[in-house]
Design goal:
Blueprint: H1 3-8, H2 15-36, E1 41-44, H3 47-55, E2 61-64, H4 70-80, E3 84-86, H5 92-107, H6 115-124, H7 134-145
Parallel strand pairs: 1-2, 1-3
Length: 156
């Protein structure tokens, strides 16, 4: 690869790293779509997170955690369903919100799913820090890897 070609790439890792990231994110999206069909509640921070997930094909039951007191929010969610998936952003505020909600849910006998959030964080690392950036990030990965013809999820 020439130095000139390296400069034109938006990322610094080898191509196979981005192919693996794209594959892993698409596996997570498939899982989320399946979970959405199984009456799971996805908890996010804002409307843009909901729009991003819907754009990616996840059309489930979304609840926005930042619109009322956290204890009332968690109590009302716990009454609705025990199958909760927390998808807060992975910035400082999102991490604090996730920890507080997890504590509230545990006190109510609900064990929230944090695995999907943790997997996303491990894949995107520091490239993005929030749920609403996922569609753009996936598009970039598809452009880098040349997998734009293999779109199983959203179209822009």
């Amino acid at each position: 690869m020439t130095d000139n070609h390296k400069q034109n790439r938006p990322f610094k890792a080898p191509l196979h790293v981005y192919e693996k990231r794209l594959e892993s994110i698409e596996e997570i999206l498939s899982e989320m779509i399946q979970l959405a069909s199984e009456d799971r509640i996805f908890i996010v921070e804002g409307k843009r997170d909901v729009l991003a997930l819907k754009k990616l094909g996840v059309d489930g039951h979304f609840e926005i955690a930042t619109q009322r007191s956290l204890s009332n929010f968690c109590e009302s969610i716990a009454q609705l369903n025990e199958k909760v998936i927390i998808l807060t952003d992975w910035d400082r505020r999102g991490n604090m919100l996730m920890l507080k909600m997890t504590k509230h849910f545990h006190s109510l006998g609900v064990n929230p799913n944090l695995r999907i959030r943790e997997r996303l964080i491990s894949i995107v690392q520091k490239e993005i820090k929030d749920v609403e950036s996922l569609p753009t990030y996936i598009l970039k990965l598809r452009q880098i890897t040349g997998n734009s013809t293999n779109c199983t999820f959203f179209t822009d």
